[in-house]
Amino acid sequence: MRVLVLGGDGYLGWPTALHLSDSGHEIAVVDNFARRGYDTELGSQSLVPIEDLDVRVAAWQEVSGREITSYVGDLLDAEFVYSVVREFRPDTIVHFAEQRAAPYSMIDREHAVYTHHNNVIGNLNVMYAIAEIDPEIHLVKLGTMGEYGTPNIDIEEGWIEIEHNGRSDRMLYPKKPGSFYHLTKVHDSHNIEFGCRIWGMRATDLNQGVVYGQTTDQTTRDPRLATRLDYDSVFGTVLNRFIIQAVLGQPLTVYGKGGQTRGMLDIRDTVECLRLAVENPADRGEFRVFNQMTESYSVKQVAELVAETFPGPVQIDYLENPRWELEEHYYNVKHTGLVDLGLKPHLLSDTLIESLFPIVEENKHRVDNDLMFPKVKWASAKN
Ligand code: NAD
Ligand code: USQ
Fold first, then answer.
1. Residue 34, Cβ neighbours under 10 Å: how many?
2. Is ligand 2 within 6 A of the CB of residue 189?
3. d(CA 46, ligand 1 centre) in Å
């Protein structure tokens, strides 16, 4: 298949492009390097050094003999989006290209507005390009488990049958997200479902949990193929941060009581889930939703697991929670769709944590300790 990967320079987009290319698909990537720009703005950098996109693409050709086409441009530029879709003529568009950090979206008005504009309008431009140029294109869109929040009922896979006053209907599962970033994903989901209803688009919404890990079968073939690993309190995600904190000899920063529970998955499962979704397209008019996670853990359990696994002393600190979120709650998620398509999950107990320690050890001199402690507070409109 011809697959266009939007956000193909990012943490997940780049390894996914490699995995799909290695599986025999024709790949093009699109990126405007916004993520590298946030690093400049925040004074941060990936813990693991990463190459520029053109070096990555050339290295992949050298290592695999396979070509990846790259387009540099912004999804907010509708003409650019249309021209790429017209030129590359994809069968599938995989859409990772959004601002993805909850704390970044909660810094202040400007960052909330940027995140909404970038994510919601960029996605609309992609939807219109599909509808106008080729409605057969399958849109595989990265959503998030955080769209659901932590309701006091079981979380279904996107849709729920509701009975009300003696009548019933199949509705989109109600959403109660926890940041302006997570809200953009809810808006995208609603827009895409509408596109499926009115234009007969075919779409898969992947409500992904928190990703951990940094290596895949393809990225390890050459150091130039490495993907980024974020540790700072704005872009670093919880398990990656705890592993890095353990290696640095710093206390693990559990926010609040640590009872907040999240769906998680290994980066190797992310790339495989994308392959499964791409190779098994949704039907015309179908808005298909998969909960892309393999296991649930509370933040406290994650911290304890890292402390038990690290071969040295680890302190766990319970900080005042900078976010607004339930710290003790019910959490039971249905996630069978991708397993039914053939996913064989890597579980957290299967050595991933140990394999990350040496990668962090080798690069720990690149950490700026000032960026570790959380400064963005949900309760302040201006941080
Ligand atoms: P990332 O920031 O590393 O990658 C996103 C890429 O998209 C970046 O390279 C960025 O430059 C690009 N981009 C952003 N806006 C763009 C625009 N307007 N035009 C062109 N390119 C643009 O993020 P990631 O961690 O790889 O996440 C990818 C997707 O997966 C996001 O949509 C995110 O919401 C979702 N997701 C991530 C996680 C996670 O734990 N990392 C979990 C669940 C869902
Ligand atoms: N947390 C800590 N200590 C830390 C960092 C985080 O206790 O040092 C807690 C947070 O308070 C939260 C949980 O860990 O309860 C997860 O936080 P996170 O920063 O790892 O993840 P989150 O903000 O939810 O966002 C990440 C990605 C986002 C994706 C989301 C999936 O950045 O793109 O959508 O995971 S999900 O969480 O399922 O919504």
1. 19
2. no
3. 14
Active site residue 181: yes
Q: What is the pLDDT along the chain (383 residues), one digit of tens a residue?
A: 999 999 999 999 999 999 999 999 999 999 999 999 999 999 999 999 999 999 999 999 999 999 999 999 999 999 999 999 999 999 999 999 999 999 999 999 999 999 999 999 999 999 999 999 999 999 999 999 999 999 999 999 999 999 999 999 999 999 999 999 999 999 999 999 999 999 999 999 999 999 999 999 999 999 999 999 999 999 999 999 999 999 999 999 999 999 999 999 999 999 999 999 999 999 999 999 999 999 999 999 999 999 999 999 999 999 999 999 999 999 999 999 999 999 999 998 776 788 899 999 999 999 999 999 999 999 999 99
Cα 315 → chain centroid: 28
**Can you tell me whether residue 366 is helix, strand or coil?**
helix
CA–CA gap between residue 315 and residue 156 (Å, rounded): 36
Q: Is the CB of 75 under 6 A from ligand 1?
A: yes
Cross-strand partners of 265: 211
Q: Which domain holds residue 149?
A: 2-382
- Whole-angstrom Cα distance, residue 345 to residue 45? 30
Q: Is the CB of residue 264 below 6 angstroms from any atom belonging to ligand 1?
A: no
Write the DSSP symbol of residue 306. Answer: H
Torsion sign across C-alpha atoms 171, 177, 183, 185: negative
Supply the CATH number for residue 348's domain: 3.40.50.720
Q: Which ligand is nearest to the CA of 266?
A: 1
Which of 210, 331, 367 best tests ligand 2's pocket when mutated (most atoms within 8 Å of CB)? 210
Two structure tokens written together for 182:
């997570």
The answer to whether residues 156 and 173 touch, using CB atoms and an 8 Å cutoff, is yes
Q: What does DSSP say about strands 159-164 and 167-172: parallel, antiparallel, or unpaired?
A: antiparallel
Count of structural domains within the chain:
1
Ligand nearest to the CA of 182: 2
